[in-house]
Amino acid sequence: MSTDETTQRLRVFLVDDHAMFRAGVRAELGLHVDVIGEASAVAEAVQKISALEPDVVLLDVHMPDGGGRAVLDAMRRTHPNVRFLALSVSDAAEDVIGLIRAGARGYVTKTISPDELADAIRRVADGDAVFSPRLAGFVLDAFAARPDTPVADPELDQLTNREREVLRLLARGYAYKEIAKELFISIKTVETHVSNVLRKLQMSNRYELSRWAADRRLV
């Protein structure tokens, strides 16, 4: 049986706060799986997933109201048969490890191709753990070294999810205009987030932020 024939029966739910991204995923996956619903916020996602009970939920990590971790925390005890696959722009170690600790079966980045994503969905539905290539090392290192220790960083915990995304892109050398385009926000909003990060971390410029982010493997 081919991959397409196998995944055709899978019922998938999509959680992401960007409408254009959700539309793109629906279009790309249409030949492979049945996307039975979508949500842009945590409360909406929890309600619809509970009602629909999909096979696999594609879950964004960072959303304004708590993101993927909040959805997992609400769902994992009441709906243990629903499998969760994180699908995010972030490839930071703390995001990957945090979602896996919360109960996700895999974590892939939004650079994944449609065919690879369809295969990842099938594998997660079958009970496998699936990661984009370089992300698996983060999980292995974290669980081998400190299997019972939660990932915590008091300084990082001061930042909102959106501030972390802006910081990560800034540290990679993105200009404000490029960050705005990547995150679907205005340049003014980017500037506000950067100011907030500088204030919270008590730093004076983006170069200090870049070094700080690199030290924490956020880049």
Structure description:
The structure is a single chain. The model is unreliable at 1-8 and 147-151 (pLDDT under 50). The chain has two domains: 3-145, Response regulator (Rossmann fold); 154-215, Winged helix-like DNA-binding domain superfamily/Winged helix DNA-binding domain (Arc Repressor Mutant, subunit A, Orthogonal Bundle), CATH 1.10.10. It contains twelve helices and six strands. The chain has helices spanning 3-7, 19-29, 42-52, 67-75, 93-102, 114-125, 135-145, 154-157, 161-171, 176-183, 187-201, 206-215, and strands at residues 11-15, 34-39, 56-59, 83-88, 106-109, 130-131. The chain has a six-stranded parallel beta sheet with strand order 2-1-3-4-5-6, sandwiched between helices. It has 219 residues and is of the alpha/beta class.
Radius of gyration: 18 Å
Shape: globular
Average pLDDT metric: 82
Please identify the top-level CATH class of the largest domain: Alpha Beta
Helicity, as a percent range: 40-55%
User: Which architecture of the largest domain per CATH?
Assistant: 3-Layer(aba) Sandwich
Helix and strand composition category: alpha/beta
Question: How many helices in DSSP terms?
Answer: 12
Instruction: Strand order, main sheet: write it out.
Output: 2-1-3-4-5-6
The secondary-structure element order is HEHEHEHEHEHEHHHHHH
Note the main sheet: 6 strands, parallel
pLDDT below 50 for ≥5 consecutive residues: which ranges?
Answer: 1-8, 147-151
Compute the separation of the termini in Å.
Answer: 40 Å
Number of domains: 2
CATH topology of the largest domain: Rossmann fold
- CATH superfamily (homologous) name of the largest domain: Response regulator
How much of the sequence lies in strands comes to 5-15%
Q: Give a count of the beta strands, DSSP E runs of length 2 or more.
A: 6
